[in-house]
Specification:
It is built from 8 helices and no strands. It is mainly α and about 160 residues long.
Length: about 160
Amino acid sequence: MDLATAAALYSLSTLSIDMLPHIAENALIEGKDSLHLRILAGEKEHDTHVLIKYFIKSLEELNIPLPDTQRAAEIAVDYYAKSILSKRLSAYDGAKRIWMDIYNHINHPKGISAFVVLASEYEDYLPWANEGDEYYRNLLRNVNNQIIKEAETVIKRLTEVQ
């Protein structure tokens, strides 16, 4: 995850603060550099307040703004959709994160409700599919494919807007 995405998830209050040293370490590897980013990358104590302080200072030093809620949601949806397509997240896990971290968090934004519906359907079918019912396994595969198509559509739409 890059720093801009981390800033977006932080703005939405959905970033796991314990991940900040790892995110900072990756940013250094990618060529970003600042005093507080180096400190954050080496931070072994997981004191939430300290990690947040170093993270905010790093963003300031690197001129990475904390986005407003709408922009943060767009960045987060793009991140999760790309994570689905790259298979860093399963289709269901990515759709569920969009549902829980974004859709529910910022009062049901337009353009992502399909992820909510599809993740909910997935949850409905999963118990029967786990019992070996082939009909429900096929339904899960179809839902999975629909989530992937929705991720492609969202990325395309977000790219056109930018």
